[in-house]
Amino acid sequence: MEVTIADNQLIDLQKKLEIFFQGKDEHHEFCPVRDIMDRFGDKWSLLAILNLGYSGKVRFNELKGKIEGISQRMLTVTLRSLERDGLITRKIYAEVPPRVEYELTLLGQSLLQKIWELAQWASGSMEDIMHARLEYDSRS
Amino acid sequence: MEVTIADNQLIDLQKKLEIFFQGKDEHHEFCPVRDIMDRFGDKWSLLAILNLGYSGKVRFNELKGKIEGISQRMLTVTLRSLERDGLITRKIYAEVPPRVEYELTLLGQSLLQKIWELAQWASGSMEDIMHARLEYDSRS
DNA sequence: CCGTATCCAACAGGATACTG
DNA sequence: CAGTATCCTGTTGGATACGG
After folding, report:
1. How far apart are CA A80 and CA A87, in angstroms?
2. What is the mean pLDDT of chain A?
3. Is residue A86 within 8 Å of residue B129, measured between CB atoms?
4. What's residue A66's pLDDT?
5. SS3 for B59?
6. Residue A79 · residue A64 · CB < 8 Å
7. Residue at minimal CA–C1' distance from C14?
8. How many other β-carbons are positioned within 10 Å of the β-carbon of residue A122?
C-alpha cells in the first residue's frame, strides 16, 4: 500500500490533535480555537491587522481610508479590542488638531505572520473552492 | 543601529504585503482575507474541521457529541457549507436506520493544517494576551 | 481630527417540533 | 438516525448626530 506525503502529514497532524484534544478538560470549552475567533473572527480585525502590517505606523483617518467600507464606529471598536489584547499600540499626541497613531506590537506582528500564511492558503485555494461550489450548486 | 531577526521578518512580510495589496484592484474588495473569514469565521466551522481532522470519518450524531454545545440545526448548516466549499465529503449509506459519514477532503486537510498552526499561535500567545488585557482593564 | 452616544436593521444562531 | 421547518432572541454592525 502506497503512502503519500499528504497521508503522512495528515497522520502526523492527527497525532498532534490527539494530544491537543486530550489535553483539554472533558467538560471544558475547547479554548484556544474559540479564542482565535474571538480575537479576529469579526468583520474588521483581520483587515485592520493586515493594513497595519502593510503601513506600519498609521493615523486613525488614514487607516479608515485604507479599509474600504468601515465606519468610524467600527474602526474605533476594532482598534480598541486589538489594543486591549496587546496586538497594537495607540499613541496620542497632544496637538491641535489631535493626532493618534496606531502600530502593531511584536505580538501583533507574530499574529500578522499567521494571518499572512492563512491569506496565502485562501489565495491559493480560491480556485478549488469556487469550482467545488459550482459543482455543488449545479447538483442541487 | 541594530536590526533584530524580528525586524527582518517584519520587513520581509511588509514587502510581501505590498505586492499583495498592489495586486488588488483599487476599487475592489480585498478578497482573500474576506474569503477566509467567510469560510470559517462563524461559530462552528473551525471546531467542526478540527474534530473531523481528529476523528477521521465521523457520523452526524457522533460529531454532534464531540462538538460541545452545537445544535442539530447548526451542525447541519455548518457541514453543508463546508461540503459546498469542497472541504468535506458527505457519504450517505442507504441503510435503516440511515448512516451518513463526513470526512475531510484533501483541501479540507490543507486548511486543517493552517488552522492547527493558528491554534498553536493562540495557545502560545494566550498568556501574553491575558496579561495585556489585565493591564488594559486596570488602566481604565 | 478623533472619537462617543444613540438608535435601529439584519442576520446568526438557539429551542422546539416534526419527518423519511 | 439524520435531518427539515418554524419561530424567536441576542448580537453585530451601520447611520447619524454630537463632543473634546
Report:
1. 10
2. 88
3. yes
4. 93
5. strand
6. no
7. B71
8. 21
